[in-house]
Amino acid sequence: MLDAAIKALSQMISPPMRSILWRSVGLALVLITVLAIGLQRLLSWFATSGEVWLEGLLGPGWHTSLEVLSWIVSIAAGLGVVFGGVFLMPAITSLVASLFVDDVADIVEREHYPAEQPGLALPFSQAIFEGIKTALLTILVYLIALPLVLFAGAGFLIFFLAAAWLLGREYFELAAMRFRSPKEAKAMRRDNAATIFTAGLFIAAFVSIPIVNLATPIFGMAFMVHMHKRLSGPRPELIEPARQMR
């Protein structure tokens, strides 16, 4: 696993990968800026007018709970774009990864596995769907864990473990679906859940590093291509024939 991570890191700055790296970083910067500003505006609205609106919708019995939530949101809104950037980075990188999955995987497979049958490109709609699904799920998990971050340090650990599970899950399935049907890719991920979660810890650590985390889609995808190869074994006959009919 460490060898796979080192190979992914070293290949990130190789000439064939640089163009993808800069496109990925540029897109991530645009998305993170736009969404972070949007999140800050939303939090500011909730901290002022949103609490009253929700109390009118839910009833006076929710007054105390909504006051606490409003206080939490006020703190988050005060942190502004910085908070939004940190909070949304794993979700953004999930979405960006779905756009570059095949570009990265093709380069890794050609350089490190030239004797094996290359994977087939995922349909664009399927890749985007997987990226959006993971991004939304990441935001949902982080929103649930947010109060724990403000009240107890355990929340940061929850963030980290959630990122490891979510990002490891997405990147591995994207790599596996180049060779297997979505159903088989998900089944393989479940059968190797502990290994993939451990690999996800590497990606979670990477996405936790400011600035460097903009390159998470490249590192995560390259890393999981290696992990899928290791878990599959060098056996071309394992590649599902029906996958080629798509």
UniProtKB/TrEMBL annotation:
Keywords: Membrane, Transmembrane, Transmembrane helix. It holds the Pfam family EI24. The chain crosses the membrane at residues 20-48, 68-89, 139-167, 196-225. The keyword ATP-binding does not apply. It is a multi-pass membrane protein. Its main location: membrane. It is found in: Membrane. It comes from the Bacteria. NCBIfam families: PRK12768.1. This is CysZ protein. It comes from Bradyrhizobium ottawaense. The lineage of its organism: Bacteria, Pseudomonadati, Pseudomonadota, Alphaproteobacteria, Hyphomicrobiales.
